């Protein structure tokens, strides 16, 4: 279905991902976790947006792909009596695309993240396949790997879904596929005042001294915990930044200065609350929220890991008020001992680093 068309737009990796748990060495790049499909209209609108900009008369250069969904002549197969997709009216193109979407979702248990991959390369590779990170037919002008195209597609899809956009004339899906595997996180009940501990209380019960551990060079908190531990939003807000580099800085050979795409945070997020305070969580093994999403206190946002500039599996928690880094330790201690929070502006900006 997908044409070999150059895809040059910047990637916005606001995605939900599956945990990577390996005994040693570099993990494979993260994969988007399953997400239940919404309306067929939204799926169609996403495909049109990325494939042709909504141009039902589009014709790919150097390929038989045409129409709003960039069907190859071979996959269009004379649908509706038209030789090329671009010759068919919009409702016929929509109907053909909707049929294919239904087939993909039925085969993949309603997981909408399968749609862009199948549209791009015709199938979903196995979880360890090198296809995920290889550009298909680069000689034809393609620039994105299936993983990158999937991530880019999901950003557009979730934006359109959140805006309840319904472009086109095809009917919305009338059936609810079976539930997907539980990979979107979950959470815990917030403490009074909409606060939360950043992880399971049982880990702090086992080692309360961890609360007061200093950060190595600036106000922040490093909490040594096992890979895969659920990490919760201490404070609710909007996911303003996501980081998706899944490798370990030292295993990847980043050196002291980085480069080569190295990211000190690894897999992580920054949440901005209603007062403008920035809450940053780093070194995860998986994201469970997406860019632009509004989260509540206690909602799971990542799984802990050892990605980025990390010497051992841990959570890095950083709080910034008006650009000034504050010490999280007094807040975590208060949440642990008294089950309530403190105004981040009252937190010290020194005394919690070596």
Provide key terms for this protein:
single chain, disordered N terminus, 14% strand, 354 residues, nine-stranded antiparallel beta sheet, Glucose Permease (Domain IIA), 21% helix, 2 domains
Summarize the structure.
The protein is an alpha+beta fold.
Tell me how many strands there are.
Answer: 9
Total of DSSP H or I helical runs spanning 4+ residues: 7
What is the domain total for the residues?
Answer: 2
Query: Main beta sheet, described?
Result: 9 strands, antiparallel
Q: Calculate the terminal CA-CA distance, rounded to whole Å.
A: 57 Å
Strand content: 5-15%
Query: How large is the radius of gyration?
Result: 23 Å
The SSE order reads: HHHHHHEEEEEEEEEH
Question: Strand pairing plus helix content: what structural class?
Answer: alpha+beta
Roughly how much helix do the residues carry, as a percent range?
10-25%
Shape: elongated
């Amino acid at each position: 279905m997908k044409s070999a068309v150059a895809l040059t737009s910047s990637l916005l990796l606001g995605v939900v991902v599956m945990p990577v748990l390996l005994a040693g060495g570099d993990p494979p790049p993260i994969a988007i976790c399953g997400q239940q499909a919404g309306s067929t209209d939204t799926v169609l609108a996403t495909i049109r947006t990325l494939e042709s900009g909504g141009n039902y008369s589009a014709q790919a250069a150097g390929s038989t792909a045409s129409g709003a969904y960039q069907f190859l002549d071979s996959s269009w197969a004379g649908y509706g009596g038209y030789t090329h997709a671009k010759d068919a009216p919009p409702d016929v193109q929509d109907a053909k695309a909707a049929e294919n979407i239904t087939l993909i979702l039925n085969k993949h248990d309603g997981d909408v993240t399968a749609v862009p991959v199948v549209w791009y390369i015709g199938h979903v590779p196995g979880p360890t396949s090198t296809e995920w990170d290889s550009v298909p037919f680069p000689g034809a002008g393609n620039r994105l790997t299936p993983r990158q195209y999937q991530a880019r597609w999901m950003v557009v899809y979730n934006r359109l879904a959140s805006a309840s956009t319904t472009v086109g004339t095809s009917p919305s899906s009338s059936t609810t596929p079976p539930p997907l595997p539980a990979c979107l996180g979950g959470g815990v009940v917030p403490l009074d005042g909409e606060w939360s501990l950043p992880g399971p209380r049982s880990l702090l019960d086992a080692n309360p001294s961890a609360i007061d551990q200093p950060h190595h060079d600036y106000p922040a908190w490093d909490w040594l915990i096992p890979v895969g531990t659920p990490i919760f939003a201490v404070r609710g807000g909007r996911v303003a930044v996501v980081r998706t580099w899944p490798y370990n800085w030292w295993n990847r050979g980043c050196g002291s200065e980085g480069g080569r795409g190295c990211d000190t945070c690894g897999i992580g997020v920054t949440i901005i609350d209603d007062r403008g305070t920035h809450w940053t969580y780093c070194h995860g093994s998986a994201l469970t929220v997406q860019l632009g999403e509004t989260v509540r206190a206690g909602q799971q946002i990542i799984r802990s890991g050892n990605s980025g500039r990390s010497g051992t599996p841990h959570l890095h928690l950083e709080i910034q008020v008006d650009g000034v880094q504050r010490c999280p330790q007094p807040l975590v201690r208060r949440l642990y001992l008294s089950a309530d929070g403190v105004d981040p502006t009252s937190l010290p900006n020194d005394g919690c680093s070596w």
